[in-house]
Design brief:
By secondary structure, the chain is α/β, with parallel strands linked by helices. Helix 1 packs across helix 2, helix 1 crosses helix 4 and helix 2 packs across helix 3. Helices cover 38% and strands 23% of the residues. It has 3 domains: 76 residues, Arc Repressor Mutant, subunit A (Orthogonal Bundle), CATH 1.10.10.10; 104 residues, D-Maltodextrin-Binding Protein, domain 2 (3-Layer(aba) Sandwich), CATH 3.40.190; 99 residues, D-Maltodextrin-Binding Protein, domain 2 (3-Layer(aba) Sandwich), CATH 3.40.190.10.
Length: 309
């Protein structure tokens, strides 16, 4: 191995430790043992005659005097990614992978149903769809694209508003037979609800039931919105659902249609990854489906049209 190659390897180790915030996580990501990562950081610090990292109980942070170096390495990594992508496109027909992370409901009951249209924008891209109930750290390469119901406003991210969706109240015929249907907002205090587990809510944007009723009587809690749907279908209570979730669940009917909650759809990507052709194509696909389905997402229509368009 040449000296230049060795130096670049050391720089990439430093970059990954900076991204992950720990030697252990960087070691797993790089598939190197802990001692090798530590040794390469020490070698780089010795070569540059500067201390790069601070270590504390909270993890590892990049020292202020090393921030400029980190930015240069990030640029080098961006160019290396572009080169790798170009070589991949010219030497193989194999599909490239883009990982999208988002909440369970929109992942399983909307995005997964829309993937038939992906080939129009990214014919050689395969999607890895990760449903996760918390904010994703794209700087640690947990995903390529993060779809959220809020603007992350994080350093190093490019975020854009792609659309909006509405939530409405739903219940099952079984619930109506047992408890009747609420006549107005005030009458909701006399009914039971299913919803999220309060102390497991990591994203404030999904505290949507609070905007409809104060201190609801809860009959069922789950961190899974699909479990909430099934509980509501069984007649356990009323559930507040995004249109894209309710449309995929048989046995629920919309009630009190004048009561709704609205949320935004934000799509984020690491700035240094936004130029890659595969990521740009997937972003175009996502912009297309959110525009195409705007009326459905806002509840103006209750059924999703053809997802292959």
């Amino acid at each position: 191995m040449t000296s230049a190659a060795t130096k670049w390897d050391d720089l990439r180790v430093f970059l990954e430790v900076a991204r992950q915030g720990s030697v252990h996580a960087a070691s797993k990501r790089l598939r190197l043992d802990h001692s090798t990562v530590t040794r390469r950081i020490g070698k780089l610090e010795s070569l540059l005659s500067v201390k790069l990292l601070d270590r504390s109980q909270k993890g590892i942070t990049v020292r202020e005097e090393a921030q400029a170096l980190l930015k240069h390495i990030e640029q080098m990594d961006m160019h290396a990614s572009s080169l790798e992508e170009a070589i991949t496109r010219t030497t193989t027909e194999s599909a490239q992978t883009v990982r999208i992370a988002t909440m369970e409901g929109i992942a399983s009951l909307y995005l997964a149903r829309c993937l038939g249209a992906l080939s129009q924008f990214a014919p050689n891209v395969q999607i890895e769809l990760v449903s996760i109930p918390q904010t994703v750290d794209l700087s640690r390469k947990e995903a390529d694209i993060f779809l959220s119901f809020f603007n992350p406003k994080s350093r190093g991210l490019k975020s854009a508003l792609f659309g909006r969706f509405s939530l409405f109240l739903y219940c099952s015929p079984a619930y109506v037979r047992r408890h009747g249907e609420p006549s107005d907002r005030k009458d909701l205090q006399n009914h039971m609800f299913v919803g999220y587990i309060e102390d497991l809510l990591a994203i404030h944007a999904v505290r949507w039931l609070d905007e409809v009723i104060a201190k609801p009587t809860m009959s069922f809690h789950s961190n899974s919105i699909i479990a909430q749907c099934n509980a509501a279908v069984s007649g356990l209570g009323i559930v507040l659902l995004p249109t894209f979730v309710a449309a995929g669940v048989a046995g629920l009917q919309r009630i009190l249609p004048d009561i709704s909650v609205r949320r935004e759809i934000w799509v984020s990507i690491r700035t240094e990854q936004s130029h890659l052709a595969k990521n740009k194509s997937v972003m175009q696909f996502m912009k297309h489906i959110f525009r195409r389905d705007a009326d459905f997402l806002l509840g103006r229509t209750e059924t999703l049209e053809s997802t292959s368009k």
